[in-house]
Backbone:
């Protein structure tokens, strides 16, 4: 079995992976991820105890016990570029021998739940809702650098969306974990989440620079492929889903709806919406 090179997988002098600064014993197989580093403590404050903490760049990690379950919560910062680092290095902790640099024969499947914030692009998805992403729609190019497979339905949606938006390259469409969809479907609204590689222009916001797609929100609001409609938009979900499928992990993204882009409204109490989603996740995971 060939070894993974020192430049493909960088290991710190203490034996931890390069960006996360974690060793295998530091992380549970059940992981909650958040974008905002300050949200890590909002979650771990519910734990019975925290037995490990690591702060490295935007990647803050707490591992501890919650009602007899060992859980890890870790922040990524914003965007699929950070998600790409997180997912590859988490997978390496469990599925690559960091000493020999060889892929392990036995695959460990991680169960990962994203707790994030999002804006609705449908009028009937009200502020304060919790949307579970059945599918992630990636408008970023990240997954085009990997070999992965989309199903025929996913390819159909991708083609239709590219044509509808007159987009220069194809989006990628990936379904979340069926196992985790089943776990959360009765306490959330099922939706399909658009992942954008920016907060302003890529999400149709205009400040001082003219944007190329000024009618983006309107087009997304009306777009559908048979019964497939886009419900909300954010910056990470599709990257998680694409990498989870390629690496063989169970992944679901749950979204606290803080804005309605069609009505141009923003939540008056975003922390309340996020905290109620955190409690749902902790009780189900």
Residues:
């Amino acid at each position: 079995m060939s070894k993974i090179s020192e430049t493909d997988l960088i290991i710190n002098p203490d034996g931890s992976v390069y960006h996360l600064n974690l060793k295998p014993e530091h992380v549970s197989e059940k992981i909650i991820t958040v974008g905002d580093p300050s949200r890590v403590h909002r979650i771990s404050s519910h734990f019975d105890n925290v037995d490990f903490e690591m702060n490295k760049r935007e990647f803050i990690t707490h591992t501890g016990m919650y009602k007899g379950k060992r859980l890890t919560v870790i922040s990524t910062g914003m965007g699929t570029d950070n998600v790409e680092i997180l997912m590859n290095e988490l997978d390496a902790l469990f599925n690559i021998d960091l000493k020999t640099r060889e892929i392990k024969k036995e695959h460990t499947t991680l169960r990962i739940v994203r707790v994030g914030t999002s804006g609705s692009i449908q009028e009937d998805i009200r502020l304060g809702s919790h949307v579970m992403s059945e599918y992630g729609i990636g408008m970023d190019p990240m997954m085009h650098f990997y070999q992965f497979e989309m199903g025929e339905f996913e390819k159909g949606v991708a083609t239709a969306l590219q044509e509808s938006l007159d987009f220069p390259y194809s989006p990628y469409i990936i379904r979340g974990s069926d196992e985790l969809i089943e776990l959360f479907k009765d306490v959330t609204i099922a939706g399909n989440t658009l992942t954008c590689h920016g907060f302003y222009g890529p999400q149709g916001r205009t400040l001082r620079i003219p944007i190329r797609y000024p009618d983006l929100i309107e087009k997304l609001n009306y777009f559908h492929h048979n019964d497939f409609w886009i419900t909300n938009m954010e910056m990470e979900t599709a990257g998680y889903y694409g990498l989870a499928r390629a690496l063989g992990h169970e992944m679901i993204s749950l979204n606290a709806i803080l804005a309605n882009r069609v009505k141009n409204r923003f939540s008056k109490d975003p922390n309340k919406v996020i905290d109620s989603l955190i409690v749902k996740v902790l009780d189900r995971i």
